[in-house]
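Lab manual, section 2.4: Encoding a predicted structure.

Procedure: take the sequence of the chain (370 residues), apply the prediction step described in section 2.3, and record the output as structure tokens. A sample record is shown.
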Amino acid sequence: MSLSVDLGLARGAFRLDVTFTAPPGLTALFGRSGSGKSTVIACMAGLARPDRGRLTLGDETLLDTGRGLHVPAHRRRIGTVFQEARLMPHLSVRQNLRYGRWFSRARRDADGLEPEAVIALLGIGHLLDRRPTGLSGGEGQRVAIGRALLSRPRLLLMDEPLAALDAERKAEILPLIERLRDAAGIPIVYVSHAVTEVARLANTIVVLEGGRVAAAGPAEGILRRGELGDFHAAEAGALLDMVVEGQCSASNLTRLSGRAGRLLVPHLTLAAGTGVRVHVPARDVLLSLADPVGLSARNRLRGQVLALHALAEGTMLVEVDCYGAVLSARLTRTSVAELGLAAGTPVFAIVKSVAFDPAGMGRAAHAVEI
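Recorded output:
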């Protein structure tokens, strides 16, 4: 189910003027604090009224200020998860979940996950008789997500749901959001200013700056071209979908394969055939005109220059096509000139490190030297 958003709002010195479409999957609203991300979420949820706007979900219009249409929040069938769990403290986990189910009582003919499926998906069966005060931050967020899902939403909004959690609790929730993205069957709009979260979760990225859309498109392209804004330019890099091909027991390495070729990474406790999303930072890719020898870096991928983009501070982003998978390398303009790089130049990409996000590992991504 696709989503179309067109919102305008003025509050004091702040101006919001945002238009984007979100295809099925997880769309990340990305930007620094104050860029308008949470305001967009509030307008979509019906918790704030824009001065001008139109919001459509599938074939239904939920907001059209030009026609005086403003479907109230409780009738939009939109589930919202905030930074804090916002559970009712006087109710047990079971009762909080039942509240979400009760909220959907008028939608019994609507599609949605059954309580048993939600409880299993989020792994909260052992928490049902507890009160919110006895839950950890990660457990509370899992229950909040469950309550939102049991309201039978057609759209799930997540407003920085990991911001209040420590690294260990974030590592609990990230795999659950991946499962929601892949199994729940509803679009998700996810607010974040953390590149690692966006690289792991997003199918689509909408970058906000000063209340406006600075860039929007498939996550792979936005990250590869470094369109996350100047303050995140150093985190530009390619996303590669790969699978575990096998283990090299003698060297304690895992072999990954994908369209670009093979990568060797430190041992992963994953079975052959497991899907892995790999983030290759542009700053950790070197380019050579010949197949290099005598290097400690184990991974060399053959390709050709696809495009070059000028960046700030005398650097350039060089896109390299490796059999249909595109890597990025951040080089100085001097290096580009000395190598004579241009579109079509054959090169070898030497990959120094990656951040990997294997499905089901149950922990946050981390970079590994290879």
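Check your result against the sample. The chain has two domains: 3-231, 237-369.
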